[in-house]
Each structure stands twice: as C-alpha cells, then as structure tokens.
Amino acid sequence: MTRRRISMSDFVIGAPLSWDVYDDSSKLLLRKGFVVESEQQIEALIARGLFAESKASSTSPPPINRQVDKPSALRLINQANKRMGHLLYNLLHEAELESKIMEVGADIKRAVDINVHVALGSIILNRAAIAYPVRHCVDTAIISLLVARALEMPDAEIDIILAAALTMNIGMLHQQEQLQDKAGILNDDDKNIIKTHPQTGIRLLKQAGVKNDSWLLTVLTHHENEDGSGYPLGKTGLKIPLGAKIIAIADRYCATISPRSYRKALLPNVAMRSVFLDEKQNIDQSLSAVFMQVLGMYPAGAFVKLINGELCVVTEQGEVRKSPIVHALIGSNGVKLAFPLSRNTARSMYAIQDYAEEMTTPVNMQTLWGDDAAL
C-alpha cells in the first residue's frame, strides 16, 4: 500500500473522506465516508500522524467527493419510514396500495443488502427519523426479513412477511403512540382497541384494496401465541402461519427496546431475556435460536462499556459471537472522543465489560459506517 501523511489541506469540514485512514502500522482506523465535523477532529487526526492510502503514481490522496453517489442503507430506511407514514395515514385514499407497500418492502431489502449492520443499528440509533407507530413497523420488518432469510424462506413468502409487518398495526395506528406511553393499567376501551386491532386492520386493508389472503391472514394472526393465549382467535402451534410467528417475536423485541415516556429503552440483553425466556411459552422455540443468531449477543447499535472504561457502540459482528467490532465514542477518561475509534473486542485490552445505557446525545451513524449510513 502506498501511503501519504495527512495534512490540513486534505480535509474539508462537513465533507466525507474519500479515502481510508490508517495509522503508521497500516491498521485501518477510519473508513471512507467518515464525516469530519470540526477543526478539533482534524487537529486530532494530524496529531496522530495518520496516513491516507493513495495510488503509487499520485502524490496526494484522491480529491474529496462531496456527493455520495452509492446507495445508502440508512437513506433507504428513512425513505421507507417516510413513505410508510404517508401510506398508513392515507390508507383508504391510496390507489394500488398493495404494490406501493411491496415497493417499500423492496427498499428495506435493498438497505439490508447494502449493509445489514446499518439496518440493525438504525433500530436503536435512528429513532428520531419518524414517529413511533410508523418506525416500529419498519423496525419489525427489518428483523423479520433477516429471520426469514436465515430460514431460507422463498422470496415470495418473504415479501408477504414484509408487507404484513409494515401494516400489522394499521388497526390501531391513531391510538398507538398514546397507548405505548401509558404507564398505568389500561382501561377497558384501551384493551378493546388492542385486542381487536388485528381484525380492524384486515378490514381496513381489504377496504384499501389488499386482496392477498396470506398477507391478510398474517396480519390477523400476528398476536397469536404458541400456547393459545394470544388474540384475536386463540390459535395454537401449527395453526399459526410461520410469517405471523416471526413478526410476533420481532414486534415484541422492537417494542421492548424502544423507550417510553415513563421509562428508558430496555437494554437488548434484557429485551432478549424477556422475549425468549420470560415469555417462552408464547413463542415457537424453534425460532429462538434463529433470532439469537440474527441479533447476536450484542446487536449492532447497542452500547457497551469496555474493560478499559471506554463507552462504545456495536458496529459489526465479530468472528467470535461474544466479541463484536465496536467504535469507541467516549474515552476512558469520560470525555467524548474527537472521532469514533474502531475496537476489536476479541482483544483482551478491548474486551466488553457489560452493556451500557444509551447515550443521551444523538450518534451520527455516518461516522460509524461511512457512506452506507449517509443521509
């Protein structure tokens, strides 16, 4: 690799790097697409004596590309959120609703294909994108897609699962944000809205022109439990469609890691314990291992504390399940770092001590994943 030492003239504040950055031992520290946000970050980079990769015949790094040309996973997810918001709130006034929902599902598939870690990370790090009732359906669709693919389900069946996940709560859309922020005991009217929303949902979908029976059945049964304790029909085991079982688990997990007005977001390990252990009688146990494989011990976007005191966010699954790749955001001294630093937690000096509470300030996903998380 031909390298050139970085100088101040190589940076433009607010522009993504168009080259990878290495230390003097050729270790990759910053990915192409990292956005330099301040002069302090530039000074910190220069002080470390970092290098940029360049062609042997060139005396300087490639020119900075101010436009992100490649598709961005995060941009596609935000596009899906925005479009679903319009479709759900205008359901009965949308022509060709079926095909439009399928198009949103296709965008989610493209996002996952570009960068699965960005897609998973957005569930925790991208909550400000849109209101909870819409975002929750997109989040559930992302995880449902990954589980269905892990099960090697046919593409046509996966498309139906995505469509059902995106429309699963249409029957209580206008009440959902109010309901999910209620700390006390629900009254009878609230309980009735929840218990009947699958049936209300398929009635609205039929009115809007949805004719696919598998889609409608999956929406109707996405709150059925393995032991028959679910609603609205009390179905059990094999009588519940596989797609509905997948959505049900993804729905519960995503709801549990989302904050409420009366509590913080639960840590992913607490959420997984609640879904897969505390409520194990409600779910198909054959799916538990698949969900754990998809999410990992430390899902992308989760916050962890290292034994060296650094606060990090998980950005990629490592070769060892319990040792993901993370990026440090807060140093061991408690001070925010000028730029995220990649850490391989398989190394003893960067081992994970435990999960950590989420940061109260937003995290710029592009500084973690580069162009794949560009807005």
Low-pLDDT residue spans: 55-68
Helix content: 40-55%
Strand runs, count:
9
Do you know the CATH topology of the largest domain?
Hypothetical protein af1432
Number of helices: 13
Main sheet: strand order: 8-7-6-5-9
- pLDDT averaged over residues: 89
Number of domains: 3
Tell me the strand percentage band: 5-15%
Using only C-alpha atoms, the radius of gyration works out to 22 Å
CATH superfamily (homologous) name of the largest domain = Hypothetical protein af1432
Overall shape: it is elongated
The CATH architecture of the largest domain can be given as: Orthogonal Bundle
Which sheet architecture does the biggest sheet show? 5 strands, antiparallel
Give the CA-CA distance, first to last residue: 31 Å
Topology as a string of helices (H) and strands (E): EEEHEHHHHHHHHHHHEEEEEH
Note the main attributes of this structure.
375 residues, alpha+beta, Hypothetical protein af1432, 3 domains, 5-stranded antiparallel sheet, 4-stranded antiparallel sheet, 13 helices
Folded structure, characterized:
This protein is of the alpha+beta class and 375 residues long. It has three domains: 3-53; 73-295, Hypothetical protein af1432 (Orthogonal Bundle), CATH 1.10.3210; 302-363. The protein has helices at residues 39-47, 73-89, 97-114, 116-125, 132-150, 155-167, 173-180, 188-207, 213-220, 242-256, 268-278, 285-295, 366-369, and strands spanning 2-5, 21-22, 28-30, 51-54, 303-306, 311-320, 323-330, 336-344, 352-355. Strands 8-7-6-5-9 form a five-stranded antiparallel sheet. The chain has a four-stranded antiparallel sheet with strand order 1-4-2-3, with no helix packed on it. Helix 5 (132-150) crosses helix 12 and helix 6 packs across helix 10 (242-256). The radius of gyration is 22 Å and the shape is elongated. The two termini are 31 Å apart.
